[in-house]
Prior knowledge:
Blueprint: E1 8-12, H1 16-28, E2 35-40, E3 44-46, H2 51-55, E4 65-67, E5 77-87, E6 92-97, E7 102-106, E8 109-112, E9 116-118, H3 126-129, H4 136-155, H5 159-165, E10 167-171, H6 175-191, E11 204-209, H7 220-232, E12 236-239, E13 243-247, E14 250-253, E15 258-260, E16 264-266, E17 270-272, E18 283-284, E19 287-289, E20 302-304, E21 309-310, H8 327-345, E22 359-363, E23 369-373, E24 378-379, H9 380-394, H10 398-414, H11 431-434, H12 443-457
Parallel strand pairs: 1-2, 1-8, 2-5, 8-20, 10-11, 10-16, 11-12, 19-21
Antiparallel strand pairs: 3-4, 5-6, 6-7, 9-17, 13-14, 14-15, 18-19, 22-23, 23-24
Domain FAD/NAD(P)-binding: 8-334
GO molecular function, one term: NADH dehydrogenase activity
Keywords: FAD, Flavoprotein, NAD, Oxidoreductase
Amino acid sequence: MNTVTRPRILVVGAGFAGVECVRRLERKLSPGEAEITLVTPFAYQLYLPLLPQVASGVLTPQSVAVSLRRSSRYRTRIIPGGAIGVDLKAKVCVVRTITDKIVDEPFDYIVLSPGSITRTFDIPGLTDTAFGMKTLAEAAYIRDHVITQLDLADASEDPAERASRLQFVVVGGGYAGTETAACLQRLTHAAVKRYPRLDPRLIKWHLIDIAPKLMPELGDKLGRSALEILRRRGIEISLGVSIAKASPEEVTFTDGRVIPTRTLIWTAGVAASPLIGTLGAETVKGRLAVTAEMCLPDHDGVFALGDAAAVPDLAKGQDGAVCPPTAQHAMRQGTHVADNVIAALRGQPLRPYVHKDLGLVVDLGGADAVSKPLGVELRGLPAQAVARGYHWSALRTGVAKTRVMTNWLLNAVAGDDFVRTGFQARKPAKLKDFEYTDAYLSPEEVRARVEGAGRARA
Length: 458
Ligand SMILES: Cc1cc2nc3c(=O)[nH]c(=O)nc-3n(C[C@H](O)[C@H](O)[C@H](O)COP(=O)(O)OP(=O)(O)OC[C@H]3O[C@@H](n4cnc5c(N)ncnc54)[C@H](O)[C@@H]3O)c2cc1C
């Protein structure tokens, strides 16, 4: 077999979209038809919707990190690293490996699925103070941080310090923020029983959002149910409010309130991966503007999908509507884009992506949940069964399914031991330390590097 003449397909990012795409390519293409390469900094696909359960200790971090190397049928070459720039004209992707080596990876077809990063705003102190909820390390770190606050508050004789360590602020009333606040409140509510010196009434969780409603996708009635469940559990919800400034020991809300706190969790939306900015191509609110076939217009062999791309939402039937950044769309786009790459390779017509949203599931911990599968509004245990059933069936491997199910059962039967591991205790890490957003080249730097490498080879 002559490997040199095989077309090279390069997939960037091993998330919901990238992994579905690679698996489909492996299944549908014979090894002689194309060479498949995947660029990814991690050896796993992260099941992001279950991150709040990792932060609250219901699931172990390993159970939501789905291995990329489970089967000998997986023949894709994996480059451990991150793409830091793409030259679309020269068809070269610049990769920084996990050992900090910069390598050029030529391609004939590229599938861009690097996902998104936490969207931040120019709020004084935000990136130095807040935690995000986008990576496995962040979720594990936040759990340790929250338990640390209970330990330190318990040891402190200073009432002001106690009060500030026992207040927690979550910004963002979408599903990520709401589930995070709900799951972590359950953690502190259960843990405080082990601290007889602490007054449970001092523990306060704040969930705030600049929008007038929590999770507007749920609709009015179900959104109100979620709000009532959280308020009943003592979470203080403030709508139409954001952060004016943040510092390590207090957060100022835009309504003027100053909350003494050591914990600010920021989940107010996502922005496309900075990799998209290195292309010098058209974007829609930062996401790469692609056709319904997920192709970049005027660039043969360039595909993009998932959170990083603005894929037209044909099922909505509205001009200019784009698919929301959800795992539901990313997974389906992954399979679909693989079919389109194969069609392009074989000179066949490409098909547009159409998917009608199946609804939303929101796990608020324990028996609390709201779900809207196919438009049916559910609350309590039926909603929880749908939420967990949906996530469980969407986990890709049998091992991940077994781990998650075992963790759920173990947690239900034995509970949590609230152990602080001391992870990064002396070097606190914040949003900017987890998401490596400064690793990327500018379009000019990409061009200069690729041209320089070309001249050196000539
Ligand atoms: C807390 C939380 C809860 C959520 N809950 C839900 C839910 O209930 N339902 C739902 O549908 N959606 C949910 N989402 C959204 C969903 O997770 C995303 O929409 C989905 O992950 C997008 O898939 P993706 O493949 O585009 O990106 P991702 O799954 O984020 O994958 C991107 C991959 O690319 C890698 N990467 C990044 N940059 C580079 C680079 N430069 N080079 C190489 N690789 C790179 C990343 O490490 C990652 O592995 C939730 C998100 C969060 C954060």
